[in-house]
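TL;DR need structure tokens for one chain.
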Amino acid sequence: MKETFMREASSIDVANSLRGLRESRGISMRALAAKSGLSANALSMIERGKTSPSVSTLYKLADALGVSITAFFSAQEQSKQIVFLKSDERPHMPFPRGIFEGLGGEQFAGRIQPFVLTLESGAFSGPSPIVHSGHEFVFCLRGKIEYHVERQFFLLEAGDSLLFESKLRHRWRNPGDAVATALVIISCFAEGETPHVMHWKPGKE
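>> reply
TL;DR here they are.
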């Protein structure tokens, strides 16, 4: 199971977006390395596409640049009224025991963010409840995913769905022994909010 999951995992190529964000702010590679706590060599390897950064590294770079981690997505494309993605063009972002796959919401001009979560056994959303504006739809594609919404528990298996107001405190986890995958669609959220990020921030186990 572990090998199958890892074959599915791939990182987004942040080389171009990182370079663009750094240069647009007039920050040298050496200065960014010092500010982020990374070595200049490691930063150079990332910008040349020779290595893929971990989620924790992306957070360090985002903090050093003064941007949200979503900038590594949005810097690649301007907002569009129509977004068409081939299956091999989807951005992938690994997080502890899971993979986030964007389905165009990062590039779309409207307020809807569809994405796919692939979760290893035991993966969970972190120590704090998720709360944001809008509505959330979850469709379980395979495996089992447990959602805790306020004081209610919902166990989703393949083919099951869940729809709720995202202002309700919610968490998720994969309680099964196999990899689980879910399609998640968040809509009608407040302008400037990035609710999809809340679903794959690193959690403490």
